[in-house]
């Protein structure tokens, strides 16, 4: 297997299909072992880079423990060294989450996903409430001030600390062993992944977008199932399933 690469993988919409409720995600039973074989073939240079908390990702990919960047980089595990975000360090955000839950309580289908150090408003179950959800999220982040920012995704708006971002955390990983000196590959599916694509492109790596939509990614695959097939083939025969180019 090629050991010159470092592989970064988003989770929702990339390794697994998008679902209507964030707690209803379904993981292909073969996926954890495929990722383990890839990790071994890449000398450990494989990480999941997601907006989900590390604890959630670990449950989905058990029994294995991969390198992780959870909550868009607020939580990290590299080579077994784990750093978690402490919600108590974000008291204003915690109070805002309580207010958001009150505001949306009577809006059926609008969900507040409390991630501890960030919060996401989902309206996939209630597309007619998109404008309400966006206005609510914008008002909340404006009230919180410059230490927080709003990040848009597919039927979701997430409020998170300004320091968080997939591009930033991929760059951080690339300065650490076993990622340092390798060519990065990042696979994602959403607006939240575009700054990761930008970072990987700038580093001379490969960006892969899952699904439709405008993107700066260099390669596109149709579905998470297509990606899982590519990863399985890579794990089995060691041949890179993407055209990296020169």
UniProtKB/TrEMBL annotation:
Q: Which UniProt keywords apply?
A: Hydrolase, Magnesium, Metal-binding
> Its Enzyme Commission number?
3.1.3.12
Q: Which reaction does it catalyse?
A: alpha,alpha-trehalose 6-phosphate + H2O = alpha,alpha-trehalose + phosphate
Q: What class of enzyme is it?
A: hydrolase
Biological process (GO) annotations? trehalose biosynthetic process
Q: Which GO terms describe its molecular function?
A: metal ion binding; trehalose-phosphatase activity
The transmembrane residues are none
The pathway to which it is assigned is: Glycan biosynthesis; trehalose biosynthesis
> Which coenzymes or cofactors are required?
Mg(2+)
What superkingdom does the record give?
Bacteria
Question: Per its UniProt record, what InterPro entries does this chain match?
Answer: HAD-like_sf, HAD-SF_hydro_IIB, HAD_sf, OTSB-like, Trehalose_PPase
Question: Ligase among the record's keywords?
Answer: no
Say what the protein does: Removes the phosphate from trehalose 6-phosphate to produce free trehalose.
Q: Which family does it belong to?
A: Belongs to the trehalose phosphatase family.
Q: What is this protein called?
A: Trehalose 6-phosphate phosphatase
Q: Which gene encodes it?
A: otsB
